[in-house]
């Protein structure tokens, strides 16, 4: 019995000695079950997590398999590289390859991996938009980046915030239409690329009340002063100017009447006195500033006078320069300014 006991004890010690000689922290294993995805057009590295066994480890790719083109593996098992998707595709998956790790005791572990390349995630950038009640609105409400252009835009669900009545979000990411009610709105907007990847966000929309200066048929009356320069003389003219305006979105048109008088001249014996011209004015408005042209006739000539200035709720302030052409072919230049008040 003593002999049998000693042999059994010796056998247990031998077995126990073999186990502790081949592992330091449990069974050799690869903890990473799949690799992260690579982004098309970029490069990256990733080292699968290995535990257990008896370090140091050696790494290899299993016989009969290989990493896809553009990728390699370092001596520490780090997989690195990159690739680019074919046009119109959103994802590529490589043939599987075998990732093999071997510890210093000769134990091995292996796992099958694939390299997945995807397009960069699509991004959306909502904008703050400002429009005016009863004025045509055509403003960029969102832009997009990455993904697979070209993009198409649309409203999100009603619960996420619909555009105000009278407006829509078009496929180009613009808020268009004529809003009918003032207020501040949170509007849901989504973008989709050519392979149907999508992203949504929220834009801020501010609709303000219609400015009084945009009311059609408003009359503006005030005074002006100008210098009229010809080859012979420089005249100073002053008078009363009247504009009657109509608006369409950011453009305007109307009539002009100029009832003025020449009050001084550098020419000896030059006539001074009253005159009247009339015509049209057209232009465009951006915020409180505008540019346009007055085209007038009367007092023996025709006048083309580009004008620019500001327009607020009750005041137009502007300057103009241009030319007047008279019968016989003579011409003069004009430079003046005026201030008009809404009536």
Molecular structure report:
This protein has 343 residues and is mainly β. The protein folds into three domains: 20-118, Immunoglobulins (Immunoglobulin-like, Sandwich); 123-208, Immunoglobulin-like, CATH 2.60.40.10; 213-342, Porin (Beta Barrel), CATH 2.40.160. It has one helix and 28 strands.
Give the key terms.
Porin; Immunoglobulin-like; four-stranded mixed β-sheet; disordered N terminus; 6% helix; 343 residues; 28 strands; 3 domains; elongated; eight-stranded antiparallel β-barrel; mainly beta; single chain
- The name of the CATH topology of the largest domain is Porin
CATH level-1 class of the largest domain = Mainly Beta
Distance between the termini: 126 Å
**Number of E-state strands:** 28
Give the proportion of residues in helices. Answer: under 10%
Order of H and E elements: HEEEEEEEEEEEEEEEEEEEEEEEEEEEE
Under the CATH scheme, the architecture of the largest domain is Beta Barrel
Q: What is the average of the pLDDT values?
A: 87
Strand content: over 45%
Taking strands numbered 1, 2, ... along the chain, how are they ordered across the largest sheet?
21-22-23-24-25-26-27-28
Radius of gyration: 40 Å
Given as residue ranges, the uncertain stretches (5+ residues, pLDDT < 50) are 1-24
Number of alpha- plus pi-helical segments: 1
- Structural class computed from helices and strand pairing: mainly beta
Describe the sheet with the most strands.
8 strands, antiparallel, barrel
Compute the number of structural domains.
Answer: 3
Work out the oligomeric state of the chains in this entry. Answer: single chain
Molecular shape? elongated
């Amino acid at each position: 019995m003593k002999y049998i006991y000693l042999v059994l004890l010796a056998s247990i010690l031998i077995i126990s000695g073999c186990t502790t000689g081949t592992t330091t922290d449990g069974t050799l294993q690869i903890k990473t079950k799949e690799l992260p995805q690579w982004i098309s057009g970029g490069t990256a590295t990733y080292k699968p997590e290995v535990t257990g066994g008896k370090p140091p480890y050696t790494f290899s790719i299993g016989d009969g398999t290989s990493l896809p083109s553009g990728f390699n593996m370092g001596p520490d098992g780090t997989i690195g590289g990159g690739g680019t998707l074919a046009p119109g595709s959103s994802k590529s998956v490589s043939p599987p390859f075998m990732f093999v790790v071997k510890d210093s005791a000769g134990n091995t572990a292996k796992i099958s991996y694939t390299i997945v390349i995807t397009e960069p995630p699509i991004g959306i950038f909502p904008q703050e938009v400002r429009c005016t009640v009863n004025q045509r609105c055509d403003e960029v409400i969102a832009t997009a980046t990455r993904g697979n252009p070209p993009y198409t835009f649309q409203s999100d669900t009603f619960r996420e915030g619909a555009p105000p009545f009278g407006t829509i979000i078009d496929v180009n990411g613009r808020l268009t239409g004529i809003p009918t009610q003032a207020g501040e709105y949170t509007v849901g907007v989504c973008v989709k690329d050519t392979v149907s990847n999508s992203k949504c966000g929220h834009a801020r929309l501010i609709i303000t009340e219609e400015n009084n200066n945009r009311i059609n048929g408003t009359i503006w009356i005030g005074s002006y002063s100008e210098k009229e320069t010809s080859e012979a003389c420089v005249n100073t003219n002053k008078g009363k100017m009247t504009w009657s305006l109509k608006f369409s979105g950011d453009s305007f048109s109307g009539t002009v009447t100029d009832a003025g008088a020449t009050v001084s001249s550098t020419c000896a014996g030059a006539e001074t006195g009253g005159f009247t011209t009339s015509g049209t004015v057209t232009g465009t408005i951006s915020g409180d500033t505008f540019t346009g042209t007055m085209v007038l006739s009367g007092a023996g000539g025709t006048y083309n006078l580009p004008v620019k200035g500001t327009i607020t709720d009750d005041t137009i302030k502007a300057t103009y320069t241009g030319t007047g052409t008279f019968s016989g072919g003579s011409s003069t230049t004009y430079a003046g300014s005026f201030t008009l008040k809404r009536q």
